[in-house]
Amino acid sequence: MKKADIGLVGLAVMGENLALNMESKGFSVAVFNIETERVDAFINGRGAGKNFTGAFSFEKLCTAVEKPRKIMLMIRAGSPVDETIGKLIPFLEKGDIIIDGGNSHFGDTANRIERLKEHGILYIGTGVSGGEEGALTGPSIMPGGDEAAWPLVKPIFQAISAKAEDGSPCCEWVGTGGAGHFVKMVHNGIEYGDMQLICEAYDVMRGYLGMSADEIGDVFAEWNRAELSSYLIEITAEILRTKDTDGSPLVEKILDTAGQKGTGKWTAVAALDEGIPVTLISEAVFARCLSAAKNERVHASKVLGGVTQNFSGDRGLFIQNIKSALYAAKIISYAQGFALLRATASTYGWELKFDEIARMWRGGCIIRSAFLGKISEAFAAEPGLINLCLATYFTDALKDAEDGWRKVCAESIIAGIPIPSFSAALAYYDGYRAEHLPANLLQAQRDYFGAHTYERIDAERGKFFHTNWTGRGGNTASTTYNI
Length: 483
Description:
Blueprint: E1 6-9, H1 13-24, E2 29-32, H2 37-43, E3 52-54, H3 58-63, E4 70-73, H4 79-88, E5 97-100, H5 106-117, E6 122-129, H6 131-137, E7 140-145, H7 150-160, H8 179-207, H9 213-223, H10 231-241, H11 263-274, H12 279-292, H13 294-303, H14 315-348, H15 354-360, H16 371-381, H17 392-415, H18 420-432, H19 439-450
Parallel strand pairs: 1-2, 1-4, 2-3, 4-5, 5-6
Antiparallel strand pairs: 6-7
Helix pairs in contact: 1-6, 8-11, 8-12, 8-14, 9-10, 11-12, 12-18, 14-17, 14-18, 15-16
């Protein structure tokens, strides 16, 4: 009996659909799930009559796969991954490959690579984006880890991945160590930002302009035909037009508390570790945290006073301003995300190709958009580009959007509409383009109370000074360092 091309552990939504995708592209797949009744249900259900082999133990799964074995894990991140690896090791041999397709933390992936080297087993940490539909029809796939494994999995991964408009697969090797999962993590962080920005645009139109869900849906549908064209804008238009059983907008029946699974938080933490101001994504994470405090907010709404202001003016023009704000803030979100990728790549010695990463995100993934083509072009033209805002196309786009962006932020703040990500993006833009920031006063404060020293504008960089501000502190300064 011919053995399977690949084994897959985990028949939840993503695993089941990814297995069907692989089989539809001509690959035979051995499937296993810790709750073995799911294996039966799949083999006799969606997988019936297709090229699948059901396995009911880790040993039988490994026996069913052609050597060198390729075993892909589509399971929950964290300890379940380590436990599964431990159960697979006794049945694997030197040169076999384990692929983690879940949302694992990149640091865990790097540790697992080293752990498996002791057994001669190759390990790949692979970001997979696209949700249920993408897994079935073609996701964006971001593999990284032990590069010796890449030629062995490349034919499968590139066959099942989404294809960009030019036909190229939305899957390329990312880099060593935890690079694949790190890139997927930043993708998810940008996804948090995109979703929050869209929600803020919706909230301004709903709460300030007084527009109905249908009217707002029509606006998003129109925006999806221009430079904001993207999967998230497209589905937002559809969501806003969807009716509940009583004919009212379904979106208005949904409780306003958002969930999250951790990748946005990890992005913010990684940014703090690297000292990169990923402010927009961080605000998007905190916006979800604030939404979860529903009971507190209901109580606060009865206690705390606030302004109530209705819009007066040209509604069509203000909608154009919201579009400008959304586009400009989106540029900032991606600029911050790629700045984090660049800094972390330097820290870990990854040779990330930013134009290829943008190309991989053009199809299949949740943040897929026409906009990513411009990002890919910018990095292809200037691989050493330090910030996306400095690429000519985006510099010009930000200048064109700036007036409308400021008006939306100003009027929303006056009207009491929360816009944490719109305003964080604008604050970053103003801070990044500022030749002078008030950090000189901050350094003086630090030196005053802690003798932390400061640099002077009339001395060379790297030379530090201390002032005895009170006359009682002496001349001893603290050691100078930055975390």
